[in-house]
Amino acid sequence: MKRVSKDNPLPLYYQLKEILQEMIENNILEAGDPIPTERELSEMHSISRMTVRKAIMDLVNEGLVYREQGRGTFVADTESKLKYQLSKLKGFTQIMKEKGLKTKTKILYFELKEATKKVRNHLKMPNDKNKVIEVNRLRIVEEEPFAIETVWIPYDLCPNMSQEMLENNSFYSILENEYGYNLDYAKQTIEPRILTEYESDLLTVEESALALLFRRTTYLKNGRVIEYTKAVYRSDKYKHEVILNY
Amino acid sequence: MKRVSKDNPLPLYYQLKEILQEMIENNILEAGDPIPTERELSEMHSISRMTVRKAIMDLVNEGLVYREQGRGTFVADTESKLKYQLSKLKGFTQIMKEKGLKTKTKILYFELKEATKKVRNHLKMPNDKNKVIEVNRLRIVEEEPFAIETVWIPYDLCPNMSQEMLENNSFYSILENEYGYNLDYAKQTIEPRILTEYESDLLTVEESALALLFRRTTYLKNGRVIEYTKAVYRSDKYKHEVILNY
User: Fold this and answer.
1) I need a surface site. Which of A182, B37, B73, B192 has the fewest CB within 10 A?
2) CATH number of A92-234
3) Partner residue facing A239 (CB), from B191, B194, B240
4) Nearest CB to A61: which of B87, B193, B241?
5) Is A244 left (phi over 0), alpha (psi -120 to 50) or beta?
6) How close A162 comes to chain B (CA, Å)?
7) For domain B12-75, which architecture applies?
8) A91-116 pLDDT per residue, tens
């Protein structure tokens, strides 16, 4: 291993971080390998444990290594995360099916309620309508929890929608086949999020894990908004991928 | 304000969170408004400060409120974040120009170096080539730091590339106009990240702030990979948006 140098103008923690990063980038330390302990690194480079900790913290934040309580720190497998693509408006079931993955959906609740002001705005609801269906679903891929979705649907557009219908069919196919609607497009935003305790329990990931938050507003050909969806996706095993054409 | 109830089977912190969330959703508490203090909430609902703290922590994690050291907790402005769209392969300058925003780029370093194994793999470099150009750039929008990008370019494809060329022109236009390359498409992945101290300093955001990490591999029409880019985007003022067509 290269050594940090007090003659180098870069901070010591930063030098150590770069040394470890280069070892990972060159597969000298491979995915799953333990990295040397704080004590070993501190002795090897004659630097304080604080300095070592700062270097490792940066590597953790950059996702290059991960800690396991009581076991140590290991090189992360950044290359083999499964990618799911999103460039067309497709339902969850269809996207995963195209990748050959088995999915399940668990409806956590299905409620008819008064829309809050923000939900009304997102759904661009007519003034005389105020009822929305709020559905909370846990999405499961290959027997593992994958995302938690909350979707709001204007009740006047889907008057007879029931939990049973959603349990057995994809929402988009119900819209087309039961209600005869034509989907047009969706606007989707992506933000980073930290999971709440409730969410991390449902997704069976560690508390305060990082996630992606997707918000989607979907339009029908007739101009009405048919859904507003907020979904948190776990990010430890999946990567969101887009193909950009020139 | 509604009150939490010990007769309700939902945990007290969760009830409080839902009450505050509903007030935010209905604009009773508006963006920028302070929410009641921990002490006020604890007295009002006859619950412990710990319980109040847990409810507020969840709201912070969900991005609905934010804390300011020594000042209190305020309702976040989730609606007015600027959106930048990405569905075509375009350079940063072009995307922002189309939104009417002024951009600047600061080159932090420009180096010719040996590729690490991982970079070689990403760039799918021929066996007899090993040199890459590594460029680190700070992207600035309307005088505010916006993203930090590191791009690796196979040296054999851009033998005379210099820092000066990149300072005055977009990379993609250099590829087309100076080298005569035809861009084909890019694969881009998106992951959530926590900023390192170095990154948060450069982006002038609080330490450990959340960010989006984009990795992009861009292909030429001749099949060669022309760039591998890793970029961290601040997420406090911008949202990444995609339009999905059916």
Assistant:
1) A182
2) 3.40.1410.10
3) B191
4) B193
5) beta
6) 24
7) Orthogonal Bundle (1.10)
8) 777 778 877 888 899 999 999 999 99
